[in-house]
Amino acid sequence: MTSPASTRVRILDAALDLFGQRGVDSVSLDEIAREVGVRKQTVLYWFPSKDELLDAVLETAAAELVAVIDAAVRSAPADPLERIDSVVRAVFRPAVRRPAVLGLIRELGRLSPAHAARLREHLDPLIARAIEAIGAEMDAGRLRRGDPGLIAALAYATVTGVATEPEVLRTVGWTADARGLRQLRDELRAFLRAALAPDS
Amino acid sequence: MTSPASTRVRILDAALDLFGQRGVDSVSLDEIAREVGVRKQTVLYWFPSKDELLDAVLETAAAELVAVIDAAVRSAPADPLERIDSVVRAVFRPAVRRPAVLGLIRELGRLSPAHAARLREHLDPLIARAIEAIGAEMDAGRLRRGDPGLIAALAYATVTGVATEPEVLRTVGWTADARGLRQLRDELRAFLRAALAPDS
DNA sequence: CACAGCCTCTACCATTTGGTAGACAGCGGA
DNA sequence: TCCGCTGTCTACCAAATGGTAGAGGCTGTG
Fold first, then answer.
1. Looking at the partner chain, which of A131, A158, A172 has a beta carbon nearest the beta carbon of B172?
2. Per-residue pLDDT averaged across A11-32, rounded?
3. Hey, which end of chain A has fewer CB within 10 Å, N or C?
4. According to the model, what pLDDT value does residue A170 have?
């Protein structure tokens, strides 16, 4: 029925969704197993502990995210504003397709140091490179001068903030569905444009 | 030693901090009690269940937040840009003083409908009024035309995003301390200015 | 057919969780 | 002095949690 590796993958998949939706600590192994249609002990066969399951989930999610963004960066246009634009679009794409990824991001702040390190391992180089690139464009006068780190922080905070799937945002008439995410993404792109376009 | 009501207040206080730091589900009543220096059953004496404790925590936190912001709005200057500026500063103030408030905001997305409603009860009117006011200023030509709801959503997302106390943001050289929050707040203010200043 | 390895299962276990029942200490008022 | 109220305590409990031990079924290969 199922190919040899697929149970493992299905567990990873279900765990990502559940961890993202409800928080790592609030999801039991039993629940993940039930979702997959298997016993808890099968989960523990594939991942010796909940901790290592989380580690694997973070690992694969981060790797996928980095791959998507890397690809976008490589194929992005040369003009710095266009470039930022297409990267922002790329960052939002996995989130639109898979809201649980946003949920996981929301968990960042309360992960154990070991798990946080696992994520940083993947994301740090990416962010560092982006900041460096923005800084270089500023030096070359193709972007308005500013603190690239702060601007990255703001953009990052925005993405993270969307992760709250907020009840509150409903008041704003905003919905955390694909359409809402796209709207917000476009708003962020406009903001970045306004902030970074060279004065000229 | 302790005045009659103070145990209750101390429990609320400790619960806010712990819920914010580590997530509602991950904090046990025992832990809260230990923090206060009291037995778990004393906590259950003051709040008949964990659910009602959470409710009370949200209630008081939201009420305080709204009070702070309301005061800021009332004493804010008339010029719309200045006005937004001083409200943004006000929103950040409780967060700077009490990081756990940010942690609680991060919990928003996974609160039960009942608890989320409790929060919306306080925050909705505030947000609705802000959006209405921004819309009015746009109509009057004192702010650049745009979707006030989306702009509010973006600003809100930023504040929420900061709540992640992110490991990742450290890469950016950013720190989630008071200084870092102030820097980010100022960056957000600049963004809002850039986005909303009338074309003239 | 037999065997070995892979995978999932049943059966437990200790710990922790939110919650209940009720004893008892202190204190102000009659 | 006694009473009743407030607030904290000790003593439990059922359910759920992460995790262990080991049996047994299914598969492809010799």
1. A131
2. 92
3. N
4. 61
Residue B29 approaches strand C within 7 Å at CB: yes
From the alpha carbon of B29, which nucleotide's C1' atom is closest?
C18
| Chain segment B56-76, per-residue pLDDT in tens | 999 998 888 888 888 988 998
Q: Which of B106, B143, B147 to mutate to test the interface with A (most CBs of A within 10 A)?
A: B106
Q: Report yes or no: B162 and B181 within 8 Å, Cβ to Cβ.
A: yes
In this predicted model, which residue has the larger pLDDT, A60 or A148? A60
Is the per-residue pLDDT at B5 higher than 80?
no
- pLDDT at position B28 is 94
Of the listed ranges A63-67, A72-76, A79-83, B191-195, the least confidently predicted one is B191-195
**Nearest CA-CA distance, residue A173 and chain B, Å:** 7
For nucleic chain D, which protein residues have CB less than 7 Å from any of its atoms? A 27-31, 40-41, 44-45, 48-51; B 2, 4-5, 7, 38-39, 41-42, 45-46
Domains of chain A, by residue range, sit at 51-196
Residue of B nearest to A183 (CA): B150
The CATH class of B50-196 is mainly alpha
Name the nt closest to A38 by C-alpha to C1': C8
Residue B36 has pLDDT above 80, yes or no: yes
Give residue B103's pLDDT: 76
Superfamily of domain A51-196: Tetracycline Repressor, domain 2 (1.10.357.10)
Calculate the angstrom distance between C1' of D22 and CA of A63: 36
A158 touches chain B (CB under 8 A): yes
For the record, the structure tokens of A131 come out as: 């900041």
